[in-house]
Design a protein that fits this description.
341 residues; alpha+beta; Double-stranded beta-helix; seven-stranded mixed beta sheet; 9 helices; 20% strand
Length: 341
């Protein structure tokens, strides 16, 4: 266990949802000039898969400073932004929307696989009830626990909102940390302890099914979180994983309850064409359960998702475990970390 932060963290990444509901400062509206630049790119990129293209090959004199602006917000600010104003009803179809999502995400950092088979662009929609209790929830319409993904940035683009429900929910993991310090400082060592984390059947072939991960890490003054308590609980299914103590389970339950407190969460209803970008190291995310219109199969809630690594461009330093997930969540190119005996 390395260094621990024993005083409250300061800065814009520490926030309450109740403080942000009256503000739209976290929404970036595309200007007409920026929309024109995106139209020009979409007119050129006609292939179904743009991932072989160089996103930096496109001249974006209007958009480039804006990309720098919201990327700075992800690194040093609140840790999330919503990009709004793509006219899906005025010339931008779903293919164009996917091109815009690829272009902006690729200009932020390196796209990394969202699925073990190496898929970069993930389609998020209801595929029916889970066939296995360890299947990932994005294939269903159920709500989920507030959590983080292992990568640095998760991007979500709304192609079609649901008929009922499905609002995006976020909360500050930095505010959660300060709450622990204020109410349960005796649990601080648990936040930095490496626990087995379930790979949900998507780990490398030679893995034991889980990997080691702490809830928080502190490196060179950067406090980062990967709150995946549900995955730590799930890893208990493996015989080789040490049982969680009563104190650890109590801490997990507490961490899960803090973001659910009144005023902690920020809820947002994403519109068609919206792009939400979230820094997983400082922001938790989830969604409400939703219902699609059973009489309109074309109107199903449909989101696109990218995972984005900012290794080499972000100033943030993280632990070796966090860095592995930042660059190669599924262990496709390197050996995953191990938990020392």
């Amino acid at each position: 266990m390395g260094e621990m932060l024993t005083v409250p963290i300061q800065g814009p990444a520490v926030w309450l949802g109740s403080e942000l509901t009256q503000s739209d400062e976290w929404i970036y509206e595309f200007t007409d000039a920026e929309i024109d630049e995106l139209r020009e790119v979409c007119a050129v990129v006609t292939a179904d898969d743009p991932h072989h293209l160089d996103p930096n090959a496109f001249s974006l004199p209007c958009l480039t400073p804006r990309i720098d602006q919201f990327t700075h917000e992800l690194d040093h600010g609140r840790g999330f932004v919503v990009l709004r104003g793509l006219p899906m009803d005025d010339g931008f179809d779903r293919h164009d929307a996917a091109v815009v999502f690829w272009l902006l995400s690729s200009r932020i950092g390196r796209l990394v696989p969202t699925v073990r088979d190496g898929t970069l662009l993930n389609h998020v929609y209801d595929r029916g009830p889970r066939q296995h209790p360890n299947d990932r929830l994005y294939t269903t319409n159920v709500g989920g626990m507030l959590h983080t993904d292992g990568v640095e940035i998760v991007g979500l683009m709304c192609l079609q909102p649901s008929l009922i429900g499905g609002a995006s929910i976020i909360a500050s993991s930095m505010t959660v940390y300060n709450t622990v310090l204020a109410e349960h400082p005796e649990w601080l060592p648990i936040l930095y302890k490496r626990f087995a984390c379930d790979w949900k059947n998507e780990g490398p072939d030679d893995s034991p099914g889980w990997y080691p991960l702490a809830l928080y890490c502190l490196v060179d003054g950067w406090l980062s979180a990967t709150l995946k308590t549900g995955f730590h609980r799930s890893a208990q299914r493996f015989d080789a994983v040490a049982a969680l103590s009563d104190e650890e389970l109590s801490c997990f339950e507490y961490l899960e309850s803090v973001p659910e407190r009144p005023g902690m969460m920020l809820e947002m209803s994403l519109q068609a064409g919206d792009i939400q970008l979230v820094n997983n190291y400082v922001t938790l995310h989830s969604r409400q359960p939703y219902e699609d219109d059973p009489d309109d199969p074309q109107g199903k809630r449909h989101m696109l998702r990218y995972w984005i690594s900012r290794t080499g461009v972000s100033p943030r330093r993280v632990s070796a475990d966090f860095q592995f997930l930042r660059d190669d969540y599924f262990g496709l190119t390197g050996s995953p970390p191990v938990l020392a005996e």
